[in-house]
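The authors assume throughout that readers already know how a fold can be written as discrete tokens. For illustration, here is how one protein appears when written out as sequence plus structure tokens.
>
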Amino acid sequence: MEGLVHISDISWEKIKHPSEKLKPGEEIEVVLLNVDLEKQKVSLGIKQLQGDIWEDFFSRQKVGDMVKVKIVRITDFGLFAEIVPGIEGVVFNSELGDNLPDNPAEAFQIGEERMAKIIKLNPQARKISLSFRQAQIEQQKKEFQKYLEGQSDRLTLGDLLKEQLKNLTPKSNHKKEGE
């Protein structure tokens, strides 16, 4: 008996050809997905043995989370970034950043890694919207907060002058009679 493992059921990662994951004659474990008695076809799957990575992702991540991503495709409307193998999100042009050229390909390269902020999750449609612009703002806020926390134990010139001025006694402008 033979069955077919469709390329989309080999791995959660996007692959172009089955040879990227399998070799001829290799014994593999599969899951029976469907039996079509009329057409005498059996559909099999390999990735299903690992469980649904999308469900796992949506159970762990939430809007506002920062994630490290790798740019995998650039389009006219933005780009697609891989969050984990097999899961990608979209960064629309409006979320790429400030002062960038109109064409994303002029500012970004495939394979480039960046921090992104999750701004929208749609588990039913398996869609994730990301923002480089908001991630940059978050990182700047964190850096500024670290700076402020580091400054709390330091004395400033103003602090020193204030202490010195407190210790001064004011001189009297009134002259005593006879002087």
Remarks:
- The chain has three helices and eight strands.
- Residues 4-50 form one domain.
- The chain has two domains: 4-50, 53-135.
- The helical segments are 53-60, 132-151, 157-167.
